[in-house]
Amino acid sequence: MVFLFPNILSARIAAATLFVIAANFSLCRPALAQGWVEPTIVLNTSPGGFAPYTYMDSNHASHGILYDVAHRILKRLGYRVMTSEVPRKRVELQLMSGELDATPRAIEWSEHARDFVFTDPIIRVRSALAIRVDSGYTTVKELHGHRIGTRLGYVYTVLTREFASGQLIRSDATSDLSMLKMLQAKRVEAALVDESAARWLFQREGIKDVRFLLESVDNGVELRLMFAPQRRALVKDFNHELSTLKRSGELAHIIARYTDP
C-alpha cells in the first residue's frame, strides 16, 4: 500500500474540489445570465405626446428629443426605459407612489418642485411668432391690429398685455399645425407657437414659406426630467452623462434630428 504525504494529498483534494466548483459554475452561468433583468425606468410621455420632446408614432414606438436623451443616458447607466402616458393631474402622485419614475418638466411648471429632483437642463422651450416668408414684419408692434393664431384654451404667459388690450387679436386653433396652415392661407398674420415644435413641423410637413419674427417674444424655460425624490443618486449620475453628451456634441445632434430643415 502506498501512503501519500499529507501535503500531496491536500493538494490533490484541493485540485479536485476546484474542478468540481468550476464545472458547476460553467453549467450554472448561462442560467444566471438568462435570469438577469435590467432595472427599468418608467418615463411619462403624456397622453397624445409632447412633440418633438416626447411622442409615439403610429406603431406605438417612442420618439422625441427628451426620450432619445433619456434612453441614451439611462442605457449607459444600465437601465432600460419604458414609457407611460399619464395625465398631468396624476403625474406627481404616481411619481411619489413609484408607479412612475420621471417626466419632462420645467421647474417653473411645477407647483411642488421642491418635492422632486430635477436633472440639469436639456433644451430650452420658448414661444415664438411665426410669420410668412414674404411678409415684411420685423417687430411685434407692426402686427398690432392683426389676427394672431393661438392655441384653443391655452393661457399664454407672453404678449398678455397685447391680447388683453386688443392690440393683437386671438384666432384660436386646435394645434400648432392648424395655426401654421391658417398662417399659410393668410387667415392670420402670425402664429404664436412653440419654436422647437414649429421647427419639427417645418421638417415633417416640408413647410418652407414660414419663418420666425426676428424680435424675440419669450426667453423661455429650460426643460428637464423631473424624477421621484428617491432617484436622487440616479439624477446625479444622469447629470454627469448629460454633461458628456453636451461636450461631445451628441445632444446638439439629437436636437438637430428633430428641428433642422
Care to describe what's here?
With 261 residues, the protein is an alpha/beta fold. The protein has two domains: 40-124 and 221-259, D-Maltodextrin-Binding Protein, domain 2 (3-Layer(aba) Sandwich), CATH 3.40.190.10; 127-212, Periplasmic binding protein-like II (D-Maltodextrin-Binding Protein, domain 2, 3-Layer(aba) Sandwich). The chain has eight helices and 13 strands. It has a five-stranded mixed beta sheet. Strands 5, 6, 7 and 13 form a four-stranded antiparallel beta sheet that branches. A two-stranded parallel sheet has the order 1-4. Helix 2 crosses helix 7. The termini are far apart. The model is unreliable at 1-33 (pLDDT under 50).
How is this fold's topology laid out?
Blueprint: H1 6-35, E1 40-44, E2 55-56, E3 62-63, H2 65-76, E4 80-84, H3 88-97, E5 102-105, E6 117-118, E7 123-125, E8 127-132, E9 147-151, H4 160-165, E10 169-173, H5 176-184, E11 190-194, H6 195-205, E12 210-212, E13 221-227, H7 232-248, H8 250-259
Parallel strand pairs: 1-4, 9-10, 9-11
Antiparallel strand pairs: 2-3, 5-13, 6-13, 7-13, 8-11, 8-12
Strand content of the residues, in percent? Answer: 15-25%
Intertermini distance: 90 Å
What's the architecture of the largest domain in CATH terms? 3-Layer(aba) Sandwich
Amount of helix: 40-55%
Order of helices and strands: HEEEHEHEEEEEHEHEHEEHH
Task: Fill in the keyword field for this structure.
13 strands, disordered N terminus, 261 residues
Short description:
40% of the residues lie in helices and 21% in strands. With 261 residues, the chain is of the alpha/beta class.
